[in-house]
Amino acid sequence: VPHLYPPADPKRRGYIDWAMDNFATGMYADAPKTLYPCLGFCDFPADTKDVGKALSEKLGQYADFFLKEAKFIAGDSPTIADYKVAPFFFAWEHPVLADRCSVLVPSRISQFNKDFAAASKATGMFHSAGGFALKEILDKGLLA
Q1: 76 CB contacts (<8 Å, ≥6 apart)?
Q2: pLDDT of 83-115, one tens digit each?
Q3: What is the pLDDT of residue 2?
């Protein structure tokens, strides 16, 4: 799948790498304190709501920079960077994250989620997987 990481375009590949590294070093660390407790992987830490509010700001900054110019991170079609962030962006938009962790996803991230769902059939696994999809597990958190 070279179109997801175009070998003939080193500048675009560098941008894709930068977007993935920025996510990995800037936002991924917030997943164990927000997303993981909502998925039932661990207990909620005492500072979950503060982390959620800070994460909301980081999501806005990420969108303002990496999603400003095009539909996806590096253009009008998804790349490996989009596939990396998509499950997290999808999960952080779930209402249980707003309720339990004060995560408010910016409208640009919501639009990314819609665009990514339209462009990738893989997002079906986000919604339905015999009780094991992100949405199915997070929906249980709304009932708890």
Answers
A1: 70
A2: 999 999 999 999 999 999 999 999 999 999 999
A3: 77
| Count of H-run helices and E-run strands, the chain | 8, 0
Question: What residues does 72 pair with on adjacent strands?
Answer: 75
Instruction: Report pLDDT digits (tens) over 123-133.
Output: 999 999 999 99
pTM, 2 dp? 0.94
Q: What is the CA radius of gyration of the chain?
A: 15
∠ CA(92), CA(142), CA(135), 5° rounding?
A: 50
The DSSP bridge partners found for residue 75 are 72
Asked if 119 and 78 count as a contact pair (C-beta separation under 8 A), the reply is yes
**Widest pairwise Cα distance in the chain:** 50
C-beta neighbour count of 144 within 10 angstroms? 8
